[in-house]
């Protein structure tokens, strides 16, 4: 009898203990995400009319869980209707530059509770076949969000593709455009490294960077090489300026985003008229990766995939010098147009 009572007591204690530990864990997780759950200040009207001034708490709580499920296509129509979720066209686009840090920028902005990212590169405006499918096709590619949130997508090919500025202008002439740039020679080498890795994966051989970047006939920089052309930022930007005023662009320093991401993100928050919500808490340096990683709350954090932050091959210093000299006047023009100066050599 006594033994039976003791067993019952142990069972009760076990249940109570489990409940207490569960509640404690829940509380710890909530406290970790409190910063993200603060109601937001009003978002500037430039993003269109808002029926309410702040994102409901519910929206933020659901952002990581429910929205993720919806993105995966696991939501029922009823759930979507119930939570008033919509697929919105982007209010801001990261248009490039390839290898500038576009993924890091998108993922880091997605830390903001008012931002919802399109995870995949959609390639709507640069791909004729996709573009022919129409704007509704594009909108349906967007993640579910609350009406107060803004959707951001990134497709770095937009920056260098001739037809894109006009097409984006036709969709939304007041859209905000983000361009993340790195020192042009480093960006070109990063671009090359990505292509090289693709070739190696297919067991193919590839030229050395020096051979592609320098024209063997003239010994000058090979301006036909795409990795070089992409780094002539001013040429591409000038095409965009035929459609959009410079105020609609924000230039992000991709080199600084690597070493000191927070101030760069704060500038973007300002440009997007978002209340400052991304904090140092959200970004931690991971020594193993050698990069900053993202912390959403006490339980959820992540680093970018291994394909971001590749080791670059060593490049002949005379080629680097030649490239830097080549980019120099274009860089000056770029500083002049954008009003943002970088310490590029
Ligand atoms: P490297 O691979 O040359 O180092 P994109 O996303 O536009 O392809 O840019 C890739 C680059 O983002 C990487 O180039 C890397 O340096 C940079 N980057 C910036 N912040 C990063 C981060 N937190 N984690 C990983 N890579 C980051």
Q: On the 0-100 scale, what is the average pLDDT?
A: 85
Question: What is the SS-derived class?
Answer: alpha/beta
CATH topology, what is it called?
Rossmann fold
CATH superfamily: P-loop containing nucleotide triphosphate hydrolases
Number of helices: 16
The separation of the N and C termini measures 86 Å
What's the overall geometry?
globular
Strand residues, percent? 5-15%
Reported CATH architecture: 3-Layer(aba) Sandwich
- Helix coverage percent: 40-55%
Radius of gyration over all CA atoms, rounded: 24 Å
Please describe the biggest sheet, giving its number of strands, its sense, and whether it closes into a barrel: 5 strands, parallel
Subcellular location: Golgi apparatus membrane
InterPro entries: NST/OST (IPR037359), P-loop_NTPase (IPR027417), Sulfotransferase_dom (IPR000863)
Active site: 99
Catalytic activity: alpha-D-glucosaminyl-[heparan sulfate](n) + 3'-phosphoadenylyl sulfate = 3-sulfo-alpha-D-glucosaminyl-[heparan sulfate](n) + adenosine 3',5'-bisphosphate + H(+)
What does this structure look like?
With 345 residues, the chain is an alpha/beta fold. It has one domain: 3-Layer(aba) Sandwich (Rossmann fold). The chain has helices at 2-32, 34-37, 57-64, 66-71, 77-82, 102-109, 128-132, 135-140, 164-171, 184-201, 209-213, 226-230, 233-240, 254-259, 261-271, 317-338; strands at residues 86-87, 92-96, 115-117, 144-145, 150-154, 176-181, 249-253, 283-286, 291-295, 301-302. A five-stranded parallel beta sheet has the order 3-5-2-6-7. A three-stranded antiparallel beta sheet has the order 8-9-10, with no helix packed on it. A hairpin with a 4-residue loop joins β8 (283-286) and β9 (291-295). α13 packs parallel to α16 (317-338). The longest helix has 31 residues, at 2-32. The model is unreliable at 22-62 (pLDDT under 50). Adenosine-3'-5'-diphosphate binds at residues 98-104, 156, 190, 257-258, 291-292, 304, 308-310. Adenosine-3'-5'-diphosphate is lined by residues 98-104, 156, 190, 257-258, 291-292, 304, 308-310.
């Amino acid at each position: 009898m006594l033994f039976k009572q003791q067993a019952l007591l142990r069972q009760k204690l076990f249940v109570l203990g489990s409940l207490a530990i569960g509640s404690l864990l829940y509380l710890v997780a909530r406290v970790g995400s409190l910063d993200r759950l603060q109601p937001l200040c009003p978002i500037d009207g430039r993003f269109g009319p808002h029926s309410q001034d702040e994102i409901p708490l519910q929206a933020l709580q659901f952002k990581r869980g429910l929205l993720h499920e919806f993105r995966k296509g696991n939501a029922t129509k009823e759930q979507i209707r119930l939570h008033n979720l919509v697929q919105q066209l982007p209010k801001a686009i990261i248009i490039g530059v390839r290898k500038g840090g576009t993924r890091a920028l998108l993922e880091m902005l997605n830390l903001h509770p008012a931002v919802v990212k399109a995870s995949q590169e959609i390639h709507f405006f640069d791909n004729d076949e996709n573009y022919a499918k129409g704007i509704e096709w594009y909108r349906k590619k967007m993640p579910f969000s609350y009406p107060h949130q803004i959707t951001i997508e990134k497709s770095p090919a937009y920056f260098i593709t001739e037809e894109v500025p006009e097409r984006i202008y036709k969709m939304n002439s007041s859209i905000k455009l983000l361009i993340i740039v790195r020192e042009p020679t480093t960006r070109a080498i990063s671009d090359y490294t990505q292509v090289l890795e693709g070739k190696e994966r297919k067991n193919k051989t590839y030229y050395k960077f020096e051979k592609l970047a320098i024209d063997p006939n003239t010994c000058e920089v090979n301006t036909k090489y795409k990795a070089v052309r992409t780094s002539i930022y001013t040429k591409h930007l000038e095409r965009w300026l035929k459609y959009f005023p410079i105020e609609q662009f924000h230039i992000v320093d991709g080199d600084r985003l690597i070493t000191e991401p927070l101030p760069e993100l704060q500038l973007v928050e300002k440009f997007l008229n978002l209340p400052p919500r991304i904090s140092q808490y959200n970004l931690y340096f991971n020594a193993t990766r050698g990069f900053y990683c993202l912390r959403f709350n006490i339980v959820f954090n992540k680093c970018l995939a291994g394909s971001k932050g590749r080791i670059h091959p060593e490049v002949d210093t005379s080629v680097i010098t030649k490239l830097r000299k080549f980019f120099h006047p274009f860089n000056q023009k770029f500083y002049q147009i954008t009003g943002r100066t970088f310490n590029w050599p």
